[in-house]
Specification:
Ribosomal Protein S5, domain 2; Alpha-Beta Plaits; 2 domains; 18 strands
Length: 356
């Protein structure tokens, strides 16, 4: 399939039970299992589109991400090249429809779509489990973005990572009323990168010794709650797990604090609404950054959007549950002569609608 272009469309996810801390940085192996919701469902144009071509016409791998030439990260590509038994170089162009400042896992959707497109380009017939493992080499959370809906990533025990993979718990149509309302409180670059934090916290946080067990217990408790669609119980588990992860970050040395005053204000406002309602109707959760993700239901979406706007968020948008990556044949980001292309906002939105 030399010089053929293959393209895939994928989506980010938001973790309900968080992954923080790597027991193996090269293989992206976590200390605990995790759970997430894949985003970008109907009416939510949140996608990553990635086009790839393997060729012997270039001397080195070439990556373009959102119009900029980037230093290639070889994890996914090297793993797939090894499986295919080839040394051909990759020309890759990838574009997100959402801003990096949105607090969405662009590395997750990027690595998942890269794994999908590259494995197809190399003629590999990977199982979902194998594709999840391949995506993990690029980003741990990418293992979950290989699937739609609600997804569990098993931490595994094997040193080679062969049993650390994700699997779908429920598809994107299982609980369509769920909504992730996302607020932008800061677009600043993180002072401590996620890669650095993943290593610093396990090494230095006294609290982290108990964090994996807490996360595993939270996962054990949340699975039956989700199957029962018990939002009240699920919301508490989500919020407490987010707090637990950030507590271990704060206890790192030097300390890691991704939350700012506006983030803390949003937390208080969500707790107020839940208290006044008499049950949990919204759940805040934060990844490695200050931008809040508020999990709620369709009937509360506008109320939560208003809450985030009042709390000083510079932008607010929302997302329904979405699907995993799919190959597409009617669009490409690679032009003739191996030139990187770029789609307009309206073109990205149209692709999101077609492949919802």
């Amino acid at each position: 399939m030399e010089d053929e272009i293959f393209t895939a469309v994928g989506r980010p996810n938001i973790a309900f039970i968080k992954y923080w801390g790597k027991r193996d940085g090269k293989l992206n192996l976590p200390f605990n299992s995790s759970l997430s919701l894949t985003l970008g469902g109907k009416g939510s144009p949140i996608i990553t589109i990635t086009s790839v071509m393997f060729t012997d016409k270039i001397r080195d791998d070439v990556f373009y991400i959102d119009g900029k030439k980037e230093i290639p990260k070889g994890g996914v590509v090297e793993m797939l090249r090894s499986l295919a038994g080839t040394s051909k170089k990759i020309f890759m162009v990838s574009q997100d429809s959402f801003p990096k400042s949105a607090g969405l896992a662009s590395s997750a959707s990027g690595s998942a779509t890269l794994a999908c497109a590259a494995s197809n380009a190399l003629g590999l017939k990977l199982s979902d489990r194998e594709l999840s493992i391949a995506a993990r080499f690029g980003s741990g959370s990418a293992s979950r973005s290989v699937f739609g809906g609600i997804v569990e990533w098993h931490r595994g025990d094997a040193k080679d990572g062969s049993d650390s993979y994700a699997e779908q718990i429920a598809d994107e149509n299982f609980w369509p009323e769920l909504v992730d309302v996302i607020g932008i409180v800061s677009g600043e670059k993180k002072k401590v990168s996620s890669d650095e934090g993943h290593l610093r916290t396990p090494r230095t946080s006294q609290f982290f010794a108990s964090r994996p067990a807490i996360a595993e217990e939270s996962l054990r408790r949340i699975l039956p709650v989700i199957k029962a669609k018990d939002f009240n119980a699920m919301a508490e588990i989500i919020m407490r797990d987010s707090n637990s992860m950030h507590a271990s970050m704060l206890d790192s040395w030097p300390s890691i604090n991704y939350l700012n005053d506006r983030a803390l204000s949003v937390m208080s406002e969500v707790e107020r609404i839940n208290r006044e309602t008499g049950e949990n109707v919204a759940a805040y959760t934060f990844d490695a950054g200050p931008n809040p993700h508020i999990i709620t239901t369709r009937g509360r979406r506008n109320e939560i959007r208003d809450l985030l706007a009042r709390s000083g968020c510079t932008d607010v948008f929302d997302s329904a549950p979405g699907r995993g990556p799919v190959e597409v044949t009617d669009v490409s980001l690679i032009g003739s002569g191996m030139t990187p292309g770029e789609l307009t906002k309206s073109e990205l939105e149209e692709i999101a609608r077609r492949y919802v």
